[in-house]
Design a protein that fits this description.
Radius of gyration: 21 Å
Pfam families: Chorismate_bind
Enzyme class: isomerase
Strand content: 25-35%
Protein name: isochorismate synthase
Number of strands: 23
Catalytic activity: chorismate = isochorismate
EC number: 5.4.4.2
Bound molecules: the ligand C=C(O[C@@H]1C=C(C(=O)O)C=C[C@H]1O)C(=O)O
Length: 420
C-alpha cells in the first residue's frame, strides 16, 4: 500500500527549549511507548499526530516520498535546529518485502527530548484541509511512577533448538556447495504480556542494562540495539557495522582471552568482512568520502563481544536518512552475502515472518537527518499482548550448529532478562 495517493494533513510544529527533563521513560505510555534513547539521552513521544503505513517492496521508497511531502507541507518553528528538534517521525520497517507486518512512520503529538544538556518539547498539530486542528491538544505527559514489577518467560516459538541446529547445518552445506558465502539465520522466542504489565519497566531494564545501545520502542517493537544502521547529521553520514560475536568471559582473564580470540578468528573476520563490504557498497554512491577502519575493533557489551567497524563519510547527493536506509537494508550483518541468495535461503530455512526484527528502527527529521539502528535484541508486542523475540547469527562455512545456537541464546539475553 502506498501513502502517496492520500491527502496528507498539514502539520504545525513548534519546538520550545525547556530547563530540565530528568528521565524520559516515566513520561511514556505504559502500553504504547514511543522512545529512542542512548546513554540517557534521546526522545520520548506521546500521542499520534500522523501515522503513515507502508508495505511491500516499495516500503522504503514510498516512505521517502511521503515524508518529503509531509515535511514540505509542515509549518515548523524550531529555534534549536538540533538533531531531533522540530518535526520528527519515529519509524520501524519490516525486514522483508513480503512481511505481513506493516512498516510505519509515526509523528507524535508531543516529543520531549534531551541531548547534550539541551532539553526541548515539540508540539505537533495536524490540521484539516480547512486549517482546523484534527484533534484537541494532548495534555503534556507527566512523569508517573512505574507499575508493579512483573516477570514472564520467553520460550522457544516456531524454531526449537533442534530445528535451529538443523537449519544451521543445512545452511553450512549450501555454503560448502558454493551457493552463497554467508546467511544470517534467526530463531524466535514467544511469551505473553499480562494486561496490567507496564512496558516502561522493561524499557528501564534495557536502558540501564545496555546504556551504550539504542533503546527503542516504536509501534510495539521494543529492544536495545548495538548496531547503528545509519546516522545523518547536517551532511555527514555514519554507521556502525557489527558481525562476529563471542560470549563475555567469566573473569577478567577469560574475558580478555575471549576478546583476543574474536579479534583473531578467521571465521568471525570473514563474517565481518562481508558485512562491512555490503555497507560500503551501499553508501559509496551517496558519499564523497567514506572512511572505515582497516581492522575491526572489539565492542564490549554486557552480554557479549562483537567485532565492530565504524564508517564515516560526507554525503554527496543530498540523500536523507530514509534514502540511505533504503540503500543499506538488508546489510550482510542481518541477511548474508550475496544478498539475494541469502534472502532466498532465509525464506526457505526460517519458518516465520521476521516482522520488524533486523529491519531499520529509528527517527527522521523534516530535513531528512535522522538516526536508524538495526532492530536487534528486540521483541514485537502485539495488541493482544503476544510477545515474539528474535535473535540470529551469521552462518559461514566454518559455522558449528551448537555454537551458533549458543550465540543466539546470548543475543536473547537483553530481552529475556528485561522481561524476566
Ligand atoms: C542477527 C543478529 O545480530 C547480528 C549478527 C551478528 C553476528 O552474526 O555475529 C552480530 C551482530 C549483528 O549484526 C541478532 O542479534 O539477532
Amino acid at each position: 500500500m502506498s501513502e502517496t495517493s492520500r491527502t496528507l494533513p498539514r502539520l504545525v510544529v513548534e519546538t520550545t527549549r525547556v530547563d530540565d527533563i530528568r528521565l524520559l521513560v516515566p513520561l511514556l505510555d505504559s502500553r504504547h511507548p514511543l522512545l529512542w534513547m542512548r546513554k540517557g539521552e534521546g526522545m520520548a513521544g506521546a500521542g499520534e499526530a500522523l501515522r503513515l503505513e507502508f508495505s511491500g517492496e516499495n516500503r522504503f521508497v514510498d516512505a521517502c516520498e511521503t515524508w518529503r511531502e509531509v515535511a514540505r507541507l509542515a509549518r515548523v518553528t524550531d529555534p534549536l535546529q538540533a538533531p531531533g528538534t522540530g518535526l520528527v517521525a519515529f519509524g520501524a520497517f519490516a525486514f522483508s518485502a513480503t512481511s505481513g507486518l506493516i512498516s510505519t512512520l509515526i509523528v507524535p503529538e508531543i516529543v520531549i527530548g534531551k541531548r547534550a544538556g539541551v532539553y526541548w518539547i515539540t508540539r505537533i498539530t495536524a490540521l484539516s484541509e480547512s486549517g482546523v486542528p484534527l484533534a484537541p491538544p494532548l495534555p503534556m505527559p507527566a512523569a508517573r511512577p512505574l507499575g508493579a514489577e512483573y516477570r514472564l518467560s520467553l520460550l522457544p516459538g516456531q524454531v526449537k533448538p533442534d530445528d535451529y541446529r538443523a537449519s544451521v547445518e543445512a545452511a553450512v552445506s549450501r555454503i560448502a556447495a558454493g551457493e552463497l558465502n554467508k546467511v544470517v539465520l534467526a530463531r524466535d522466542l514467544v511469551g505473553h504480556l499480562p494486561a496490567e504489565a507496564d512496558l516502561r519497566r522493561t524499557l528501564t531494564d534495557l536502558a540501564l542494562g545496555y546504556p551504550d545501545c539504542w533503546t527503542f520502542a516504536v509501534d510495539g517493537l521494543i529492544g536495545s540495539s548495538p548496531e547503528t544502521l545509519v546516522r545523518v547529521d547536517h551532511g555527514t553520514v555514519s554507521a556502525r557495522v557489527l558481525a562476529g560475536t563471542i560470549s563475555r568471559g567469566r573473569d577478567a582473564e577469560a574475558d580478555h582471552d575471549a576478546a583476543i580470540s574474536l579479534a583473531t578468528s578467521s571465521k568471525d573476520l570473514d563474517e565481518h568482512r562481508f558485512a562491512v563490504a555490503s555497507v560500503v557498497q551501499s553508501l559509496q554512491p551517496h558519499t564523497r568520502t567514506l572512511i572505515t577502519s582497516e581492522i575491526p575493533f572489539t565492542l564490549k557489551l554486557p552480554n557479549l563481544w562483537h567485532l565492530a567497524s565504524d564508517a564515516e563519510g560526507i554525503l554527496s547527493d543530498g540523500s536523507t536518512s530514509l534514502d540511505l536506509i533504503a540503500a543499506l537494508h538488508p546489510t550482510a550483518a542481518v541477511a548474508g552475502a550475496p544478498t539475494a541468495t541469502a534472502l532466498a535461503v532465509i525464506d526457505e530455512l526460517e519458518p516465520f515472518d521476521r516482522g520488524r526484527y533486523a529491519g531499520p528502527v529509528g527517527w527522521v527529521g523534516a530535513d531528512g537527518d535522522g538516526e536508524w539502528a538495526v532492530a536487534l535484541r528486540c521483541a514485537q508486542i502485539a495488541e493482544n499482548g503476544d510477545i515474539t523475540a528474535y535473535a540470529g547469527a551469521g552462518i559461514v562455512a566454518e559455522s558449528d550448529p551448537e555454537r551458533e545456537l549458543i550465540e543466539t541464546k546470548m543475543k536473547f539475553r537483553p530481552i529475556v532478562e528485561a522481561f524476566g
